[in-house]
Amino acid sequence: MPDTSLAAGGARRPRGGRVAAFFDLDKTVIAKSSAFVFSKPFYAQGLLNRRAVLESSYAHFLFLLQGADHDQMERMRANLANMCAGWDVEQIRAIVAETLHELVDPLIYAEAADLIADHKIRGHDVVIVSASGEEVVGPIAAALGASHTAATRMVVADGKYTGEIEFYCYGEGKVAAIEKLAAEHGYDLASCYAYSDSVTDLPMLEAVGHPTAVNPDRGLRKEAASHGWPVLTFSNPVSLWSRFQTPSTTTVAATAAVGLSAIAAGALTYRLLRKHR
Using an 8 Å Cβ cutoff, are 125 and 18 in contact? Predict the structure, then answer.
C-alpha cells in the first residue's frame, strides 16, 4: 500500500507520486493580464463598451505597477460576473482562438517558456493555474504545452453566461484546484513546484514543496525572503513563434504543437542558467 500524507485542507496525497509544476499565468508566464489582452477584440465584437475598455486599461496599469491585492481580486470577481452576463460562450471561444497567436504570442516570457520546457524534459506535468476565465486560460495553456489547467468557471445556461461564477480560481480556490488535480493524477504535492508573482497566491505556494516567487510584488517578496524561497526575474517577453522561425497557424490545436516545439528548443539554455545560480 502506498504511503500517504495529509495535504492542506485534509485531502490525502500519495508520497513518492508524480510531480507537477503549477504556474500562475499573469506576470508569471505572460507579461500582461490575460483578461486585458483580449479587451480589444471583445470591444471590436461589441461585447465591451468604451468605458469598460478604459476601466480595464486603468486596472491593468495598476496591476503592472503594484500587483493585485485581495480587495482588487474580489472587485475583479464582481466585475467579471457583471461584465460577462449574456455573452455567448462559443463567440468568446472563437475570438480567443482567432486572436491568440497575434495577441498572446509576443507576451510570453522567454524565461518562463524555458522553465516550462525544463520541467517537461524532467518528466513533470505542467499546470497553468489562473483566476482568469477557462475559455481564455485553456488555449494559452495549450499553446504552452501544459498538461492541465485550473481556471475560473462561469455558470452557463443555454450557451450564455448567466453572470454567476461557479468556481473562482483564486487564493484558497487555487489550492482546492491543485489538490483535486493531485488526487486525480497522483501528484505528490511535497515534491511539486509552484510559481507566482502575487502575494494572493501565497496559499498555492505554501501547498507545494518547491515554491518560487517570479517577478514578486512587494508582499510576496517579503514572504519569499522570510521563507527562504527562490526569487526569479522574468523580463524578456518575446514572440516564440518568430524567435524559432516557426510558421503561424490558424487553429488552437496546431498552435499548441508549435508552442511546445518552441519551448522545448529553449530548455537547454535554462538548464545551463540554473546550474550557474
Answer: yes
Which ranges of the chain would DSSP assign to H, the alpha helix? 34-37, 39-44, 50-66, 70-84, 89-103, 110-121, 134-143, 172-185, 202-206, 218-227, 240-243, 252-265, 267-275
- Among 24, 105, 125, 217, the active-site one is 24
Q: Residue 78's pLDDT band (boundaries 50, 70, 90)? A: low
pTM to 2 decimal places: 0.75
- The SS3 of residue 172 is helix
Per annotation, catalytic residue among 26, 125, 188, 217: 26
As a whole number of angstroms, the distance between CA 255 and CA 249 comes to: 6
Query: Grid coordinates 475560473 are at which residue?
Result: 152
How sure is the predictor about 76, in pLDDT bands with cuts at 50, 70 and 90?
Answer: low
List the one residue out of 166, 172, 127 whose CA is nearest residue 25: 127
Q: Is 217 marked active-site?
A: no
* 3 belongs to the catalytic site: no
Percent of the chain with pLDDT over 70: 68
Helix (H, G, I), strand (E, B) or coil at 55: helix
- Pairwise CA distance, residues 155 & 84, whole Å: 10
